[in-house]
Amino acid sequence: MILLAGAAAGYVQSRKLSMRVSFLEQCVRLVSALETEIRYNAGSIGELIKKHIQDSPYHSFLKNCLQNLQRGSPFEKAWGGCVEAIPREYGLLEEDRAALDEFGKGLGVSDTDGQVNHCKLYLGVLRDRLKDAKTEKEKKGKLYFMLGTSLGAGIVLLLC
Fold this sequence. Notes:
mainly alpha
């Protein structure tokens, strides 16, 4: 049981790295899609968010943002509250959360060209965060699992 518990703990940590990569990939897709739609459609932010709710496996994040908007919250506050509410299980670092929060603060506050440039800027930032997440996953993913398993085995040996 102790060995399995160690392996499970290692797996959970490894899974967080995978979930971080997946979440950031979805954010990059969202920002890219928003950039395109702002350029060619120029709809309200709420309409754009609503359109992408079903596209993401992490749709609860966007759904909460839309609900906050429908309650009358300004976009910056609605988005920021949702960024804060992202579960820790996703493994996002504070830098990831800060980048997402800053993206929301600047979205919807200028003309179309300003919004497109804002999306391009944060698309680059999020791609950098994604690259870092993938590198960390490659380096540490197996390590966490093996470390948890080894720790469990070590404890078993000490108890025997």
